[in-house]
């Protein structure tokens, strides 16, 4: 091929084409839905408060409009929770980690181990209830290239973290 | 190891130059004014009207001034620095003592910056940039210029020795004799500054003025339509004419103002700019009142780019050149060093230093998929065609025509932009070209990539297309709308290069 005029044989390059992505834990869907529900509750409170407190004739339509917009946003994010969940996946290779996400706008990010600055395992309260954790991987590429894999069991998250750090260290030595 | 006299002299704790007191006070007031300017304005405006201002605020300001002066002096006398055991030590603080030590091999660059006060007293401020993500800073407010230069040379030389020591323990003497080589790449003359000032983004201002003229013109026509008795029509058309003249006058005045402003800015910032190759990095000195010196070392440079606008390209053939460095803590636009007024021969020189033995001109580049242009045109039509139709419908003919012409211009720009995007990947380099009426070039060494991201919108997925976002430590670049197969190939290739590479990216 003319395009890459280097020595490397392209056919033998490891390819990201046929990566087998690992889905995250099923209970993470519940975490996502709870997040959406919390948003819905906040929306309802705002709308109802406005509805009760507005006496002015002129802006009586405001809570109605707000309710309609909120309902639309809420149902969209509910649908997207399901759709997004279906498409979350991660894959480990010998020298990098891949993560895919997104429903309408999909993205796959691949971070080589030898570019990882550090990684950490996080849990927010809702995740703790469901026994889930989040693996965060940081690079020098700034926040846009930082990776956060949610919906892992704490053991799996730690295991991944160990693997990544260990591999990164081995790579450094080589 | 036998220590030389100079080395011993650095082991003695040193103070800054006395000018530092001035600088500390100056910095204090700068912060104070920035924080409290609303109060100060109230004070200045309303000093006649209210007595309590002069009763309470004035003494407070005086007390603050005296306190800051005392603090500055105390701080100055408590600030020591010295170099011992290959570490730079700083001890400072009046109430809270603080000790910092920076290993010399972690020092990345030593930068100078001189403002007017510095130059009057022949001193400089000194800033040391370290590697890694730890936030360890070393800042001197004022130090004698010759001393600063001596310290810098000493640190950089010792650092080079240490780095060699780590890999192979030999021939210290040779390196000791080795002077850091400095070659001048370019020095901006006053003519160059004028060129930069002339070509500074006036096109954008001109576009804005054009749009404004259209609007005002149509407003004036409205006036004619509704406010007129037939007999006064001549008078009104004279007014209309004078209105047009006024707009023209303002346009010209604005252009001249914009030119003078950008020229002044250019002169202040880039006066007598000298651009050197120094050791394994670049050094830039510039500035009229505040003289700044920057260093950018090759390992820290993540990307280089150069671009021109239409004027620069057609008339002078000059580029704005950019060295994009990795920030130590986070991505920071200040880490990008801009050098304007560079011509293509100088760029060739710079490339010869930064990527020796490689010729980016030989890299075969290819464009992106035509669907990108179709998509952008479609968005444009969706937004503007209904708008223009509606405006015609309501009789706003002039505005509609104006917007119509503007859309045509935009579509043409998008067309140009699409055709300018080209990317190539070879010789361990990634090249991305772009621009609309000018040119943009980005060169990235493949092992500087931090992460690769493939993005697909619903539309792209339907057509088997994808965008590649390449993350580096000095920002991202995106190759938009390539076929999915190509995107995979590029990603595989980059990842392979990064994962195979054992050259540190910084």
Description:
The complex is a heterodimer of chains A (174) and B (506). Chain A has 174 residues and is an alpha+beta fold. Chain A folds into 2 domains: 28-84; 89-173, PH-domain like. Chain A has 4 helices and 6 strands, in the order H-H-E-E-E-E-H-E-E-H. Chain A has helices spanning 27-53, 61-87, 125-129, 154-173, and strands at 89-92, 96-101, 106-112, 116-122, 133-139, 147-152. A 3-stranded antiparallel sheet of chain A has the order 1-2-3. A 3-stranded antiparallel sheet of chain A has the order 4-5-6. In chain A, helix 1 runs antiparallel to helix 2 (61-87). Chain A is elongated, with a radius of gyration of 22 Å. Chain A starts with 26 loop residues before the first helix and ends with a helix. Among the domains of chain B are: 5-179, Pleckstrin-homology domain (PH domain)/Phosphotyrosine-binding domain (PTB) (PH-domain like); 371-417; 421-506, PH-domain like (Roll), CATH 2.30.29.30. Chain B has 15 helices and 20 strands. In chain B, a hairpin with a 2-residue loop joins strand 19 (465-472) and strand 20. In chain B, helix 2 runs antiparallel to helix 3, helix 7 runs antiparallel to helix 9 and helix 8 runs antiparallel to helix 9. The chains are: A alpha+beta (174), B alpha+beta (506). At the A-B interface, strand 3 of A face strand 15, strand 18 and helix 15 of B. Strand 3 (106-112) of chain A pairs antiparallel with strand 18 of chain B, so a sheet runs across the interface.
Descriptive key words:
heterodimer; A: 174 residues; alpha+beta; PH-domain like; 2 domains; 3-stranded antiparallel sheet; 45% helix; 21% strand; B: 506 residues; 7-stranded antiparallel sheet; 15 helices; 20 strands
What is the topology?
The complex is a heterodimer of chains A (174) and B (506).
Chain A: H1 27-53, H2 61-87, E1 89-92, E2 96-101, E3 106-112, E4 116-122, H3 125-129, E5 133-139, E6 147-152, H4 154-173
Helix pairs in contact in A: 1-2
Chain B: H1 5-11, H2 19-45, H3 51-78, E1 80-84, E2 87-92, E3 98-103, E4 107-114, H4 116-120, E5 123-130, E6 138-144, H5 145-167, H6 172-177, E7 182-187, H7 190-198, H8 202-227, H9 233-270, E8 274-278, E9 281-286, E10 291-297, E11 301-308, H10 310-316, E12 319-325, E13 336-342, H11 344-354, E14 366-367, H12 371-393, H13 397-420, E15 422-426, E16 429-434, E17 439-445, E18 449-456, H14 458-462, E19 465-472, E20 475-483, H15 484-500
Antiparallel strand pairs in B: 1-2, 2-3, 4-5, 4-10, 5-6, 7-8, 8-9, 9-10, 11-12, 11-17, 12-13, 14-15, 15-16, 16-17, 18-19, 19-20
Helix pairs in contact in B: 2-3, 7-9, 8-9, 12-13
